[in-house]
Structure formats: C-alpha cells, structure tokens
C-alpha cells in the first residue's frame, strides 16, 4: 500500500491547531497520570523507566505550544542515552497506550518531509467519548507535492536489492540453496529453502533481521524466532498473490520491525531463554 502524501505544513497555524492543553498545569497533570499508568504495566523495570522518562522529555519540550513537541527522535535518544531504535519502539508503545500522537510534517520552503511533531494527548473522559470527533488540524496553504518528493532513502535501498530478484522467481520451490552463508541462522535457512531457490535471497532476508537487531536487544534465539515468524508471514503474503509496491525486502523489513517492537515489551518472551520454533 502506497504511503499517503503528507498533509501538514510546518507553520504557526498548524502548530496552534495541534495544541492539546490550555496551560502547562493541565499538561503536567495529564503526564502525572500517564506516568502512574506506566508504573502499572506488566513489563520489565527498565522499559517502564524509559517510557516514563521519555514522556517527561516530550513534556519538557512542549511548553511553547502546550502539548506539542518538535524534538526529534535523534535528540530524544541522546537525552535518554539509548539507541535510536529503542526510541522508535518506546514511541510506538506510547502511541499504542494512547498517550501521544505523531504527525508527519513537510517544510513550507520546498514541501519536502521534515521532522515529525509529537503531541501529548489529553485524557478522554467517559462522558466525552460520545462527542463528535475533533476537527482535523488546519492546513497551511501549500503547493502540490508529488509522491516522488516524499520517498525515503530506506525504501530506495531495499528496492535496489530487488533489481535482479523477481517475486515469480522466489516463489519457485526448487532445490534447496546449498551454499547459504554460514552466518545465516540454520533454522531460518531450513524454512527459507522450502520457498526460495537463491542463496542470495535467503541471505538478504536474514540480513534484514540482523539490521533490525543492531542494538542487540534480543539474544540469538529470540532473534531467530522473530525472523522465523516474519518469514512465514512473508511467504503467506506471497502465496496470496500480493504484489509488492517496493520489494519483498522492504515488506519483510516492515514485518520484522513491527514484531521486534511488539516482543520488546513482552516480558515473558524477553525472559525466555530457549524458544521452540
């Protein structure tokens, strides 16, 4: 599915439309409630601590427009002293908890994508849940932006890998790939051999798993287990006849990233030493 064009332009009118609180006191009270909720989560202690610290960091950078933060994920990772990947996973968790929301933005000068804006969401009271949904933020006047302008380098990288590997070719259940590199997990190779005929394809798929675990958040068994699940999802998608807009590697990257974000907060999974496939 193609990514939708970014609608919001970074300008004063947009910032004002995204404000979620009347004053700092109101914002502080909501963040206090959210931090109490985080303490009650059934996840590892270090994750609770990082989630609590992160929402405080966002709050501290949301005082000009109450509840609206311009802080980049790169800056968050430096302040919290964790990896960029960890910040991404923490942000996903905060979004899933309904505590924050991210908006894609584009610069008014050239209409290209710029850093996202993060807003702290107010607590929705029960009596307000039946009210009409909030209006869409006001859009600043902007010239038309093409999809080509908003493509990211990440997708280009995975697209380039697929230049010589077609979906039809990888679906052929031929002989097992005998010369898959030694650094590819054997269990992953065994499953991949049933569906992919080229060793290069299997190696590239496993490399995606390794790249998503560069911070070593998962041990080798956990890493292989996630790769195994992601590979099965990819194969099922291919068998259904799905046409990939970018490449199988770009799709696989998204599946692995989503799974790692999910399992990172799964206390039982992270504490498990030996996983069965």
How do the strands and helices of this protein lay out in sequence?
Layout: E1 8-9, H1 12-18, H2 24-39, H3 45-60, E2 68-69, H4 73-80, H5 84-96, E3 100-106, E4 113-120, H6 153-161, H7 167-171, H8 186-193, H9 199-212, H10 220-239, H11 248-263, H12 267-271
Parallel strand pairs: 1-3
Antiparallel strand pairs: 2-4, 3-4
Helix pairs in contact: 2-3, 3-5, 4-5, 8-10, 9-10, 9-11, 10-11
What this model shows, in words?
The protein has 277 residues and is α+β, with helices and mostly antiparallel strands. It folds into two domains: 8-131, Winged helix-like DNA-binding domain superfamily/Winged helix DNA-binding domain (Arc Repressor Mutant, subunit A); 153-271, no CATH class. Helices cover 49% and strands 7% of the residues. The chain contains twelve helices and four strands; from the N terminus they run βαααβααββααααααα. It has helices spanning 12-18, 24-39, 45-60, 73-80, 84-96, 153-161, 167-171, 186-193, 199-212, 220-239, 248-263, 267-271, and strands at residues 8-9, 68-69, 100-106, 113-120. A four-stranded mixed sheet has the order 1-3-4-2. α3 (45-60) crosses α5, α8 packs parallel to α10 and α10 (220-239) crosses α11 (248-263). The longest helix has 20 residues, at 220-239. The radius of gyration is 22 Å and the shape is globular. It starts with 7 loop residues before the first strand and ends in a 6-residue tail after the last helix. 27% of the residues are buried. The model is unreliable at 1-5, 150-156 and 173-177 (pLDDT under 50).
């Amino acid at each position: 599915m193609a990514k939708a064009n970014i609608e919001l332009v970074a300008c004063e009118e947009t910032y004002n439309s995204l404000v979620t609180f009347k004053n700092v006191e109101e914002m502080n009270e909501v963040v206090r409630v959210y931090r109490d909720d985080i303490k009650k989560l059934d996840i590892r202690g270090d994750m609770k601590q990082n989630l609590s610290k992160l929402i405080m960091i966002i709050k501290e950078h949301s005082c000009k427009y109450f509840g609206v933060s311009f802080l980049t994920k790169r800056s968050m990772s430096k302040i919290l002293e964790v990896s960029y990947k960890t910040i991404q996973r923490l942000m996903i968790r905060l979004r899933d908890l309904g505590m924050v929301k991210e908006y894609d933005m584009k610069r008014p000068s050239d209409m290209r994508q710029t850093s996202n804006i993060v807003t702290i969401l107010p607590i929705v009271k029960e009596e307000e849940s039946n009210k009409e949904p909030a209006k869409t933020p006001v859009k600043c006047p902007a010239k038309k932006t093409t999809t080509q302008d908003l493509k990211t380098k990440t997708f280009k990288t995975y697209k380039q890998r697929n230049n010589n590997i077609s979906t039809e070719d990888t679906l052929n259940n031929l002989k097992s790939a005998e010369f898959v590199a030694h650094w590819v997990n054997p269990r992953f190779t065994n499953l991949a051999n049933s569906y992919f005929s080229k060793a290069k394809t299997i190696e590239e798929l496993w490399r995606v798993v390794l790249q998503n675990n560069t911070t070593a958040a998962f041990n080798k068994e956990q890493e292989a287990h996630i790769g195994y699940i992601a590979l099965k999802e990819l194969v099922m998608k291919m068998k259904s006849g799905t046409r990939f807009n970018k490449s199988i590697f770009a799709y696989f990257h998204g599946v692995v990233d989503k799974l790692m974000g999910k399992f990172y907060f799964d206390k039982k999974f992270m504490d498990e030493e030996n996983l069965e496939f």
